[in-house]
Amino acid sequence: MGMYGVDPALVLLDDGRVALSSGRPGVYLRIADQTGTVWSEPFFVWNGSGDSYTAIARHPDGDVLVAYAESSFHFRGVPTG
């Protein structure tokens, strides 16, 4: 699937598909088919600095809501040495 990120969150959609939000770097959303074995390419929600922890929920009208944490620090990767 080629996904990476921190603290992924899942929600089951009315039609049986699964939506996944995750972050760092940025925030993105992917949708799986009803079997959970085939995933969409990422839909970028936000691409900027911060910790990018996400939460996801399904609104009663069927919309998918993604919330994320943003801060002013810039992720510089893992220090070496």
List strands and helices in order, with pairings.
Elements: E1 6-12, E2 18-23, E3 27-32, E4 43-46, E5 54-58, E6 64-68
Antiparallel strand pairs: 1-2, 2-3, 3-4, 5-6
Describe the structure.
The chain contains no helices and six strands. With 81 residues, the chain is an all-beta fold. It has one domain (6-68). It has a four-stranded antiparallel sheet, with no helix packed on it. Strand 1 and strand 2 (18-23) form a beta hairpin. The model has no long low-confidence stretch (mean pLDDT 82).
Q: Report the biggest beta sheet as strand number plus sense, adding barrel if it closes.
A: 4 strands, antiparallel
Give the strand tally.
Answer: 6
Distance between the termini: 31 Å
Give the amount of beta strand, in percent. Answer: 35-45%
Helical residue percent band: under 10%
**Mean pLDDT value:** 82
Low-confidence stretches: none
Number of domains: 1
| Backbone shape | globular
* Element string (H = helix, E = strand): EEEEEE
**Category by helix and strand content:** mainly beta
Total helices: the number is 0
Strand order of the largest sheet: 1-2-3-4
* Rg over C-alpha atoms, rounded to the nearest angstrom: 14 Å
List keywords for this structure.
81 residues, two-stranded antiparallel sheet, globular
